[in-house]
Amino acid sequence: NDNRRVIAVADPAALAAAAAERVLARMAANNGRVAICLTGGSSPKQLYQLLASDTYRSRIPWQRVHWFIGDERFVPADDPLNNMGMARKTLLDGCAPAANIHPIPTATADPADPDRGAALYEQELRSFYGADTLDPARPLFDLVLMGAGPDGHTASLFPGDPALDETARWVVGVPKANVEPFVPRITLTLPTLASCREMLFELAGGAKRAILTRLFAGENLPANRARSAGETIWLVDRDALPEDFG
Ligand code: 6PG
């Protein structure tokens, strides 16, 4: 199962640049419809800003790239906590055709029911993919971006949560978050996230070092269970890298 590769970089700027090159390489490797699964939190912000800058923006084949999100906080689309809202603001708005942006719906009739939004998104993913079961020979995503939280969560898959063991559903509601912000979540499940050519984690800053030490020690935490059927890359900057890493 160890198809994970750790790439150490100097700092957050170098990390964003390395990630941007990988994103562009994935787009160039597929001359058809490209599917990118974005992530939220603070880690990918610098990458999104870089991709939106003049040098990178012109290298993205916008018409054929489709943008999804791996997890969402159950807040309105225009709430600052909304993951796709952040991606839109920093990268997508003004560049991506509206029909190519695929947010997780949070404006469902029952505000207490993230499962409804999850079911709708699962339907959207299935219809984009064109089948109800994932074929290992034909990944859903070209690239899945990920981050890891201080408790070892990734996407909105928290330690000990039953969502981690879900194998039938592609997307599930998570009533209770383990870390801030404490709002219900909607998350893609592990098999759905795994259906990609590349899964790319971004981990930067001293605040990540403690959890990275535990993850590299092999603890059974969500971020260690998230693996691509293809390549899994962890981009880690100097401040986040455990001292004894070698
Ligand atoms: C979210 C994210 C989440 C994130 C990690 C890391 O909705 O919060 O998708 O999985 O990637 O919590 O967050 P930071 O990048 O803010 O450290």
TrEMBL record:
Keyword Hydrolase recorded: yes
InterPro entries annotated for this entry?
6-phosphogluconolactonase_DevB (IPR005900), 6PGL (IPR039104), Glc/Gal-6P_isomerase (IPR006148), NagB/RpiA_transferase-like (IPR037171)
Query: Which reaction is the catalytic activity of this chain?
Result: 6-phospho-D-glucono-1,5-lactone + H2O = 6-phospho-D-gluconate + H(+)
Q: Which residues are in the Glucosamine/galactosamine-6-phosphate isomerase domain?
A: 11-234
The superkingdom of the source organism is Bacteria
The record, for Pfam families, names:
Glucosamine_iso
UniProt function note: Hydrolysis of 6-phosphogluconolactone to 6-phosphogluconate.
Name of the protein this chain belongs to: 6-phosphogluconolactonase
**High-level lineage:** Bacteria, Pseudomonadati, Pseudomonadota, Alphaproteobacteria, Hyphomicrobiales
